[in-house]
Protein 1
Amino acid sequence: MAIADLCRQAGYAEKTATILKAALSEDEVKARLASYDQIKNLCQTAGFPDKAADFIKDDCSVSEVQNSLLALLTSEDETINNALTPKQQGLKPTTSAIDTQAIYSRRNRT
């Protein structure tokens, strides 16, 4: 099957020229087209469906897209502030509500 036909059937007719310039075999073309589908799915799943076209246009690999999407997702995260508040800083450790020594000493007596 012709490379142009493969591209057109997969929905990536605009990539025909790029793929032809790369002189890929038919199996390599099918793998590249499958990676484009993976990129679309990754972007859709991550909530950035509009980014897929740019990644495909730039011939990014699936792993590059995964890294980019992860960076996008984590950039939106807020920094977690786990510092103790002034009120918490003055607290002293309390004893456990459960006295394990007493429980085991009772069990061992019977």
Protein 2
Amino acid sequence: MQLRIHATTTGAGLILLGLAHLLAPGPLLAAARTGYERVLNVEFVPDAAAVRRVRFVGLVMLAVGTVVSATDETVSVGVERT
């Protein structure tokens, strides 16, 4: 089985996710809080700097996505079944 990963698609996805982190950190933290409580059964209480960290991650994703989408490469990964 051959899996092809296009850099343009991956870069666009990173750009969209980066924008979501930059523009809406509150709903992302609320989703994380819900996920932690339901899946891990632990209390997740973000501190005052959490919004800033989420936005920083978004900025990094936006930068990486911009660089990746500028390349016109395709990565092929082959998986052999035995």
Protein 3
Amino acid sequence: MAELSLALGRHACSLQAGASRIYAALGIGRYRFQERHGPNQSYDFYWEGGRDGAVCRVRGSDWDPALPQSRLHVELTGGAAAAQWMQTLQRYAAAQGWGVAEIADA
């Protein structure tokens, strides 16, 4: 799994708007909102889409997906396609003026 953290700076937007921009950059036309509830009232929400055997999940930095997100966290899985997507997103983020950091596996 590859993971990126994108710092949007003055371009903060809702999670849906940010995910839409990322999926457009990757050429992913279909994606869906996932909301999972866990124990102790914990929950996780993200947008998920994929193609060519790879999956991309986009999470926000804020607990409320409707609020402006200062960061987007992108998880990429699926081998060679995911590696190519990482390069595409790094170039896209740079062109948008976003900060980008690759997160190392723990």
Protein 4
Amino acid sequence: MRHLGVLLAFMAFSLAGALKVIVWTPDLSQVVAYGEVRGGVMQLRAASTYVGSVSVVVSFEPGEAKQYPGLASGYSGLLEKEKLSLNAASGRVILSTLLQRWNIPVQWLK
């Protein structure tokens, strides 16, 4: 049943359009950060003080996929305070560095 809740949360989060990120604990039991692009800026908010390994889900509207070539829909990674590192195909990369490719700065909200 836990996976059903994860699926429903992801579906609800992805309905609004725009590029979004949800950061989960590795076992998908808790959302530890989330964010979306607003006004050309990826605005992230930590949901807890969690530091450690994470699973990251990236969502965007089907029509937006062409705008972000090479951006995967999921990554494993590491969350450390206001730094999210992703294990990308090219190696470990910080989210802000990855999104620079599309001129999207990252802002952590308090």
